[in-house]
Design a protein that fits this description.
alpha/beta, 2 domains, 23 helices, about 65% helix, globular, disordered C terminus
Length: about 550
């Protein structure tokens, strides 16, 4: 006897609640990672300080329009102001000068609030993916797609920071859902909502302008269906124009200073469009596209889900409806679009993940349908079989996600290095460090260096008075990945390893995240350091080997 529709609907609702709760458990715990230290300075530099300044003043200019990330900066500023009013008797209206002082003194608390906003966007993206796939394929595919989208470690890591990565996924899913609704029934209201959603997406990341092209494709399909019906075409054309105008309206309302201060916006945008970046350049547009298809997507999405996505995409291209094929068109245009940049980053593919999840879920569902027809299985058995296939292809990502969560609640190697320095290095020491080595906020030492120490000779840092040089695999691995392009930088790290005395090393392991950090002593005199890994706490005498 088959279950009733009411019982089946109730069962599916509980399954959805369970999947969303898994999403909450995946996104929230890591928001505490390494706090109160500021390890990822981009959180403060690009997002936190701008949001804090807006919350503390009446000036709504974000101060930076490179992404533009308006859908992150403005909501976070509202959270900051509300929290400050509730916790520190600040004002909900007018200026809050004390808020900036509080931000500088307790930046960790502010980062946590911003990270929670990112996590909310991440969980919201799961809900919107369910809504989108339910509209196109039904609840079973929707549940599968949402579940497949939860264990994506690369996305989870960046969604637990104050960044706009999870927001790109959220607004992409929102815009695609609105565009699909336009294809189904192109009313004026739906056109306007779709345009506004696309405008908000572009305010998150400029490259999501591909969604406006997707809306234009949908409008073309709508007008084509009404060919030969002149009054209907005129009505539809008015809606199309309203929708496209709403794209500009949505972007303009959420990022007004792109127009009001265009010189600043253009300057920041040119900075983001730089043609070189260590570890992310050197490929042609065609090579970029191949890198995304053969390296980034399998790495981020996992080979099992990736192959299922390709099967699902092939089936949709062959037998899918206009709305389903529209998702494929968006994903294809998006990948081609980002491949045109001189740079390539695996995180740039995040907005396509809802589409990939739907494709993989559709492949599982269609395969199970064929098996059911061949073996005469019940719908419930088919559901269990689909869930089993989804679980199998996600076993490795699930294990990686669990490992990630443990790593995120433990101090990273960068924080371990900072704690070692706090315990063993005197305040009058000059330290040369590169990015991703240790957090410098509140550091008592004079810190020199820059993005990569390998960009200058060792003597350069010695002349600045540095006796400790601290390097990170988060930087030097990028040089070693392209030895033909960076022989001088590789020589620096090899010379440092030969000449300096390694006094500390922090390495990631199964339950500890972060890069490998190495601390070298290069001073001319003996340095006394009490090593933390010596049970007797003996004194270690080291001198330069120059």
């Amino acid at each position: 006897m088959e279950p009733s529709n009411e019982s089946s609907n109730r069962h599916e609702r509980w399954l959805l609640v369970g999947v969303l709760l898994l999403g909450v458990l995946a996104y929230l715990p890591g928001t505490l990672n390494d706090l109160p230290f500021v390890v990822q300075v981009e959180e403060v530099h690009f997002f936190g300080r701008h949001a804090a300044r807006i919350a503390a003043t009446d000036d709504l200019h974000p101060g930076w329009l490179g992404h533009p990330a308006s859908t992150v900066i403005y909501p976070v500023s509202a959270v900051y102001r509300t929290w400050f009013a509730a916790a520190h008797q600040g004002s909900l209206l007018g200026s809050n000068a004390r808020l900036l002082t509080q931000f500088k003194e307790h930046v960790g608390a502010f980062l946590l609030l911003g990270r929670l906003v990112s996590a909310v966007y991440g969980v919201g993206a799961l809900w919107l993916t369910y809504r989108l796939s339910d509209r196109l394929f039904g609840r079973r595919v929707a549940l599968l797609a949402t579940a497949l989208l939860v264990p994506v470690p690369a996305l989870l890591v960046l969604s637990q920071l104050l960044r706009n990565d999870s927001a790109t996924v959220f607004f992409t899913a929102l815009a695609l859902l609105a565009i699909v609704r336009v294809v189904e029934r192109p009313t004026l209201r739906r056109q306007v909502w779709a345009g506004l959603a696309c405008g908000l997406a572009i305010s998150t990341k400029y490259y999501l302008g591909i969604l406006a092209i997707t809306l234009l494709l949908a409008d073309g399909m709508v007008l084509w269906r009404a060919r030969g019906e002149r009054p209907e075409q005129q009505r539809l054309l008015a809606g199309v124009l309203a929708g496209l105008a709403s794209v500009a309206l949505g972007f303009g309302l959420s990022t007004p200073y792109f127009v009001l201060d265009f010189p600043a916006a253009w300057r920041d945008l040119q900075g983001e469009m730089r043609p070189t970046h260590l570890g992310a350049d050197g490929l042609s547009p065609l090579a970029n596209l191949w890198w995304y298809a053969s390296v980034a997507l399998p790495s981020v999405w996992g080979w099992g889900r990736y192959l299922l996505t390709l099967v699902g995409a092939s089936w949709v291209a062959w037998r899918g409806s206009v709305s389903k094929r529209l998702l494929l068109a968006f994903a294809a245009m998006f990948l081609v679009g980002i491949s045109g940049s001189p740079l390539h980053w695996d995180r740039w593919i995040f907005p396509t993940l809802p589409v990939f999840a739907i494709g993989a879920a559709a492949a599982i569902d269609q395969s199970v349908r064929w098996v059911r027809q061949d073996r005469d299985l019940s719908p419930r058995t088919g559901g269990y079989l689909a869930a089993l296939v989804g679980l199998v292809v996600c076993l490795v990502p699930l294990a990686q996600t669990v490992q990630l969560q443990v790593q995120q609640v433990r101090p990273s190697t960068m924080v371990q290095t900072r704690r070692w320095l706090d315990e063993h290095i005197s305040a009058d020491t000059i330290i040369a460090r590169e990015k991703y080595s240790f957090p410098t906020d509140g550091a008592p030492w004079q810190v020199v260096g820059g993005f990569a120490l390998g960009q200058a000779p060792i003597e350069h840092y010695i002349e600045q008075g540095a006796t400790l040089l601290i390097v990170s695999s988060g930087i030097y691995d990028r040089f070693y990945a392209e030895p033909d392009r960076y022989p001088a930088q590789i020589s620096f790290y090899e010379e440092l390893d030969a000449r300096g005395v390694k006094v500390y090393k922090a390495m990631p392991d199964l339950w500890t995240g972060g890069p490998t950090i190495k601390v070298y002593y290069v001073g001319p005199e003996t340095l006394q350091i009490t090593l933390p890994y010596s049970q007797a706490q003996s004194t270690y005498h080291c001198s330069s080997q120059r």
